[in-house]
Amino acid sequence: MKWEKLKPPEPDDPMCCCDCDIFWSRCCCDCDSLDQAFNRWLKKKSHTSGFQSPVFGAVIDNLEISMIPALLLLPLLLRIAALHFLLGITILTALPGLVLWYYYATHRKKRRTIFFLTLALYSLGYLYYLFITEILPRGDVSQLQVCVVTAGMILTIVSLIHTKRGPGFVTASLYEASNRKKNIKEDFTYLEKCLQPAASCSMTSSELLKKEEAPSTKWSLCPVCKIIRPPRAGHCRSCGACVLRLDHHCIWINSCVGQANHRSFLLTLCVFVLTAVYGISLVLRSLCPRQYLMTALFYCPGVYSQSSTALCFTCSWYSSIITGGLLYLLLAQILNISFNVTEREVQQALRSKKDQRGVLGLRIHSGEHSRGFFQNWVEFLTMAEAIVNVHSKLTDLV
């Protein structure tokens, strides 16, 4: 047993950094052992506290100890960036790369993680806290404007919760239900034609069989799930299931975007971008009242004279970077919907080198489903909510 413990790892069996002798390597563990031990400790604490909420239990089950350093470092880095504008430029420029490096160092082996969702919600709460504690006491923001920002935040969170209820997964019974519905519809159409004069009832049994088999050829068998899925459905490797009209898997919400939640996902992006732009404008008008709104973000004299104003100005830049990224995603979604394509179909077109064109760097593929700008938006806004479990639990929102 002692030899087995000291035996070096095989080439295809990488050693866990928890077993490494170097102490700092244990802080960036690449496996789930540390998180699982932390979860077991928290579960024991929760049982002794007597709090039996299912939502709290789901949060405890998904807690990751590796997120704690990132949540502690974020406000610290923002305060360091507020010391001088050169520090601000350096830290804010390196912050996206630093977050990605930390994510790949600690969560590389995890298919699904709430790392980005927790970071986004924590950033949203921290920025709102600074807005209430630092900007509101200055007296430059009215109560109505505060209510608008607060309402935008609440609507964003409510829309995010609705998005998290599920993208619409493909079930084994979906194909059978679709066949039954199709057969009933075609039988009704056939009877209507037969009730007309005999000359018009010329559809033979072989023609009816071909007509019934034609739509079913569009369904395909998923090689992973081993279930028959409808057209435009795709398998998500992160979720481990097939999703109806799969658009993409969004790491920021830890969920897929599909037929059931695509509209609420677009609403979440719209509300957040509008609220963020409005909040940033209020902060800049309070910090730089003599500057134009478009130039205040780049030139605001005297803003670094006080630590509080410097921190709010730095957070405005931090919010602008996040808002710019989400605005790009929103524009990509609007263009895809206008051409009735999903992000998955766009990526497939890029790999197969089909005809596509770019608008401001956004790749657009006019697929076979496009019916014109107006009809594409009508189809998107009126498409069925897919087959979502109506008995979904609150624990599925984590």
Distance, first to last CA:
42 Å
User: C-alpha Rg, in Å?
Assistant: 27 Å
Oligomer status? single chain
Structural class: mainly alpha
Unreliable parts? 1-32, 46-52, 198-203, 208-217, 386-395
Tell me the total number of β-strands.
8
Shape: elongated
Structure in words:
With 398 residues, the chain is mainly α. The chain has helices at residues 2-6, 23-27, 33-49, 54-62, 68-81, 85-107, 115-135, 143-163, 173-195, 205-216, 262-287, 293-296, 307-338, 343-352, 373-382; strands at residues 220-221, 228-229, 234-236, 241-243, 248-250, 255-257, 357-359, 362-364. The strands form 4 sheets. The protein has a two-stranded antiparallel ribbon. A two-stranded antiparallel sheet has the order 3-4. β7 (357-359) and β8 (362-364) form a beta hairpin. The longest helix has 32 residues, at 307-338. It starts with a helix and ends in a 16-residue tail after the last helix.
Features:
single chain; 398 residues; mainly alpha; two-stranded antiparallel ribbon; 15 helices; elongated; disordered N terminus
Write the layout of secondary structure elements.
Blueprint: H1 2-6, H2 23-27, H3 33-49, H4 54-62, H5 68-81, H6 85-107, H7 115-135, H8 143-163, H9 173-195, H10 205-216, E1 220-221, E2 228-229, E3 234-236, E4 241-243, E5 248-250, E6 255-257, H11 262-287, H12 293-296, H13 307-338, H14 343-352, E7 357-359, E8 362-364, H15 373-382
Antiparallel strand pairs: 1-2, 3-4, 5-6, 7-8
Helix pairs in contact: 3-4, 5-6, 5-7, 7-13, 8-11, 11-13
